[in-house]
Write a structure and sequence with these properties.
Shape: globular
Strand content: 25-35%
Distance between the termini: 39 Å
Radius of gyration: 23 Å
Structural class: mainly beta
Number of helices: 8
Largest sheet: 13 strands, parallel
Helix content: under 10%
Length: 512
């Protein structure tokens, strides 16, 4: 799996020190308890946050026509009636606490087209005994108005749709207080108006062994307080935590969600994702970055409110003397690629409000990370342009087309018409929380790498069509270009050779 890493090296270093970007930490403070900056404009996302968990809507009080009624007083009744019923059956779970048999592998195995609808107060409880709630490969299964809790899925596995079957619809459902991931995802899965809360690893893990997921919809959900088991602390550098993790998803619409107070990253797209549209979300108070888009392609990120993220992890790195501009929005080896089909051929970030986060947006490219390199933490994966990583070897990798195509490149990123507000007294920092950045490291590794030296740093900074323009900055922002040592003021950022942020405005006063 891909993990966000930074590899630092001096020109004379034979090998670089590998340092994981994301590691576990204590939970972020409740954003509502902190002092606030002066009022500032927000997107519609903040005004219309999907506040689902506090009062989820109730399901039907009586069984729908033709539905099979499930009795909560009989352990395993739901699984048994599912086994004995034909495909396309609707099951109505009566009010009360439903359980499965005591076997830890006991679970419900739906058939194609089955629907599960909860009455008011219907809960499916794993009692910290069962690992999975719903599994199997049936397509087009629906869950509505149901609470699923108390299951103990292992790390990197999930409770609902454990086997990543295709076409599932999860609506008005609460998945909470489970180990592992609350949900797994298959192709064309739709998750709407649901509460994914307090799960041990992820709210949802969008991953399917041996297959790319397509057509994922995540709309109007509240995704909060996940990664309660703090996996980054248990396995430092695992890159395996957050509100939602996406792996090799080809086409996703993520809109209108409230992603907040997760331990670690809010939304993390990692390794060969493509064609994401992330819009109208409220991302706030996550311990780590609000959004990481890593070794992935082609996305639109617009009309989001992103506030008070990365306070815990950003401060942790700053306190130990780390100079890397670890931000609220982190694009790591990700960019636009016209040769890969999507609704856009770039990464466009616009009309967002970023307020009082620990730093802003960082565009990063690890010179030592490419297909077939030992520094590629997405072990065995190659870019979508080169399906077999063993092609990325010398001498062919030193010439076209492999020299370009064996890298995930941070390129064709267009950042415009955003509002960036920073009041350091609200964030609680004196320095290092005020950065926008576009940089790479000095390439050193492995010894046969064709990307050694400053080639990648020069390219991401000057040659790969990454542009900031027409933005509004309020607060004492600084800018990092090429490498961590080049910290610039707005005039230097706008001047030669970088020429960034034309037509942008800068107000150095702290606040909104």
């Amino acid at each position: 799996m891909g993990i966000t890493w930074r590899r630092w090296a001096l020109p004379t270093a034979a090998l670089a020190l590998v340092v994981p970007v994301a590691t576990g930490c204590t939970s972020t403070p409740d954003p509502g308890s902190e002092p606030t900056a002066s009022p500032s404009p927000t997107t519609a996302a903040a005004a219309n946050a999907a506040r689902v968990c506090a009062k989820p809507p109730a399901g039907p009080a009586s069984a729908p026509a033709g539905a099979v009624s499930v009795d909560p007083s009989v352990a395993g009744d739901l699984a048994a009636k599912t086994r004995s019923s034909p495909p396309n059956t609707t099951f109505w779970l009566r009010p009360g606490r439903h359980t499965l048999e005591q076997d830890r592998y006991a679970q419900v195995i739906p058939k194609d087209g089955d629907s599960y609808i909860g009455a008011p107060g219907a809960v499916l409880d794993g009692r910290r005994t069962n690992q999975y709630a719903f599994g199997g490969t049936a397509r087009d299964v629906t869950l509505r108005y149901l609470t699923v809790q108390g299951f103990v899925a292992p790390q990197n596995e999930g409770v609902v749709n454990h086997d990543s079957a295709d076409g599932w619809v999860i609506e008005h459902t609460t998945v909470q207080n489970n180990s592992g991931a609350g949900l797994m995802a298959g192709a064309r899965q739709q998750v709407r108006a649901s509460c994914l809360r307090g799960n041990g690893q992820y709210g949802m893990n969008a991953y399917k062994t041996g297959a790319a997921l397509t057509g994922l919809v995540l709309e109007g959900n509240e995704i909060t307080a996940n990664n309660t088991d703090d996996w980054e602390r248990q396995k430092p550098g695992c890159g395996c935590t957050g509100g939602v993790k996406f792996w090799a998803v080809g086409g996703a619409d993520i809109r209108g969600n409230w992603v907040h107070a997760n331990r670690g990253t809010g939304l993390w797209a990692d390794t060969n994702n493509n064609d994401f549209r992330i819009e109208d979300n409220l991302l706030e108070g996550n311990d780590g970055a609000a959004l990481i888009y890593e070794t992935s392609y082609n996305a639109v990120i617009r009309n989001n409110t992103i506030r008070r993220n990365n306070w815990v992890e950003g401060r942790k790195y700053a306190d130990r003397g780390d100079t890397f501009p670890y931000p609220a929005v982190y694009l790591s080896e990700s960019g636009g690629e016209p040769r890969i089909h999507a609704r856009t051929d770039k990464i466009e970030i616009y009309r967002n409000v970023l307020e009082d986060n620990w730093s802003g947006i960082t565009l990063w490219e690890n010179a030592d990370r490419f297909c077939n390199s030992p520094a590629n933490t997405s072990s065995g994966d190659c870019t979508l342009l080169v399906p077999h990583s063993d092609r990325c070897a010398r001498p062919a990798i030193s010439a076209a087309p492999l020299y370009a195509d064996c890298r995930w490149k941070t390129q064709r990123v267009d950042i415009h018409d955003n509002r960036f507000l920073l009041n350091p007294s609200v964030v609680g920092c004196a320095a290092k929380c005020d950065r926008m950045a576009m940089l790479a490291n000095y390439g050193t590794y492995p010894d046969w790498s064709p990307y050694q030296g400053e080639q990648v740093a020069d390219a991401i900074t000057l040659d790969q069509h990454n542009r900031w323009h027409d933005n509004v900055y309020v607060g004492p922002w600084k800018f990092v270009a090429h490498d961590p040592s080049r910290v610039l003021d707005s005039g230097q950022w706008q001047g030669a050779p970088y020429r960034q942020d034309p037509n942008s405005t800068f107000d150095l006063r702290a606040g909104g």
